[in-house]
Amino acid sequence: MSLCAVSLFVFEFVAVTQWQGLVTAATGDGSTPQVSFEHPFTATRFGEEEKKEKGAKKRRGKITIGRETTYVTGPLDEDGYVDYAAALNERLGQGATPANNANVLLWKAIGPRPDGTDMPARFFQLMGMQPMPEAGNYFIDLNPYMKDRLKMDSGKGGDAIQQELQGVRRRPWKSKEYPHIASWLTANEKPLALVVEATNCSHYFSPLVPTKTEKRWSGIVGILLPDVQKSRQIANALLARAMLRLDRGVVDEAWADLLTCHRLARLQGRGDTCIGGLVAIETEALAGRADLAFLECGKVNAKRIENCLRDLQKLPPLTDMAKIVELGERFMVLDSVMNIHRYGIDFIQGIVGEELSMKTVLSYEIMLDGIDWDPALQNINRWFDRMAACMREKDRGRRETELLQIGADLRTLKAQVDKGREHPDQLFNAKDSARVRGKLVGDIFIGLLLPALDKLLAVNDRIRQTQDNLKIAFALAWYQRENGRYPDKLTALAPRFLREIPQDLFSGKALIYHPSENGYLLYSVGQNGKDDGGRWYDDKPPGDDLSVRMPALRKE
Predict the structure, then answer these.
(1) Nearest to residue 341, comparing CAs of 214, 420, 438?
(2) Is 108 exposed, middle or buried (CB count within 10 Å of its CB: 0-12, 13-18, 19+)?
(3) 38-96 per-position pLDDT tens digit
(4) pLDDT band at residue 204, thresholds of 50, 70 and 90?
(5) Looking at 322-479, which runs of residues are DSSP E strands?
(6) What pLDDT score does 307 carry?
(7) Angle of CA points 25, 28, 34, to nearest 5°
(8) Which terminus of the chain has a lower count of CB atoms within 10 Å, N or C?
(9) What are the pLDDT digits (tens) for 20-38?
(10) Residue 166 sits in which domain range?
(11) How many domains does the chain have?
(12) Which of 250-286 are b and which e, b meaning 16 or more Cβ less than 10 Å from the residue's Cβ?
């Protein structure tokens, strides 16, 4: 899986960070050093090698290196372009060593070529890793395990086992009930032990290394992320094993697996890619659902629950999607502009993901000839500044108002982009100034590559509310073990069981809590701000509430 695929698609799931040595400090008078450069542009014909035809040489146009344009002023590559991957790696890798970097052990668990993907040697060099042998006791996904070890064809049998996995990761189960899942977990014991060890590391550094094709570098947008996809299967295995251990009564080992999932999510959420952040959030949500089955288990006493709550409270912060958008996604788009400047139409065609007509190619060549790229870069940065400020706005009302306006403005831009992908000549006049065409190119990139902010904010808010609900659920279980019943009101939990009771992030009011004789229903009204009676998307009728039900387990 590459960043390009993820940048054009966002899961429908659930303060600027500064760093030393990257952002050049302003001069004493508050100005920022500016450096301009131009390179000759040779237009490429799609499907052909780059040709320097006599008389066909085009001008690539001007890019000014500075805070408002390129955002960072270094490091620069040998051609004078900002190396955005290196800039992010400098930031991400601060303090990471082969001994404290969790990702070193995670790769030792999954092997050098997960899913057959060849990673650049530079990727492992940046982590200080020695080459790994091709064959080894590496983590194997469930589907390959069924095919290679169990000799089962994919199809109905394979689908049935995948469905079994969905169930056993959220409720206690026995080996004799699901023998194939049990044998899969046994086969993965050694790599899972490495994952557990990895999550006790203090740092997480996964270098961003563009790949080289016959014609060009992929840029950040084409970076491979096979380890991210693999981590989803690892999380499934840990959750399934936790529920197996819970059924066997080995409570401490069950909790260790659940806590490993939480730690894995928090580590991977430190990266600077949307896909990594979203998978981390998904892992966190799945672990939280399994936590409720853990709480319902009668073998977990008050002291154990108290200790588990303390473990949750000590976890590192959740994924910061605002930081990812502000830096990682911004750098990906700015890097793409640099690569258009460097490689021309070929790179645009790679991002669009389809073969452009000759008319479209020629129109783009005219538009890019002698263009002033500064307005494009400045416009991109203004959009990312606006998006980051919206994501960090604490007042939900003001944030929602700005979010609606950003959405409307972005839809207008995307409509222009969709029109211009096949008819760019309708968007500009060949006589337009270099700056006018530069602004237009910025609009095109914004329409193509900006993440869906409303979905990212929704995911961000939901996981934070879910985590608040989860901590309350542990406090309620602790109270129930000590008192033989659940409290009549949530306020009874403070300050002994919880220092303070979190409010509903979406309503700004108290969470809704309905105790019953043997359990309770706790919920937030969710993003729609409407009380749906605690119903979620998979309920009938569906709702939008983020709820905790106890008893938690439902009949499958």
Answers:
(1) 438
(2) buried
(3) 433 333 322 233 334 333 345 678 899 999 999 999 999 988 899 999 999 999 999 99
(4) very high
(5) none
(6) 97
(7) 55
(8) C
(9) 222 222 223 333 334 444 4
(10) 1-14+99-208+222-318
(11) 1
(12) ebeebbbbbbbbbbbbbbbbbbbbbbbbbbbbbbbbb
Residue bearing tokens 């998979």: 538
Give how far Cα 231 sits from Cα of 62, 107, 235, 237, 517, Å.
42, 10, 6, 10, 40
251, pLDDT greater than 90: yes
Gap between the Cα atoms of 197 and 448, Å rounded:
40
Q: Is residue 192 part of a domain?
A: yes
Q: Which residues contact 424 (CB under 8 A, 6 or more apart)?
A: 360, 363, 364, 367
Amino acid identity for residue 125 in this structure:
Q
Structure tokens at 179: 């023998």
What is the distance, to the nearest Å, from the Cα of residue 18 to the centroid of all Cα atoms in its chain? 20
Residue 383 lies in a domain: no
Residue 114 lies in a domain: yes
Dihedral of CA atoms 175, 286, 509, 392 in degrees, nearest 10, equals 160
Which residues share a beta bridge with 82?
A: 76
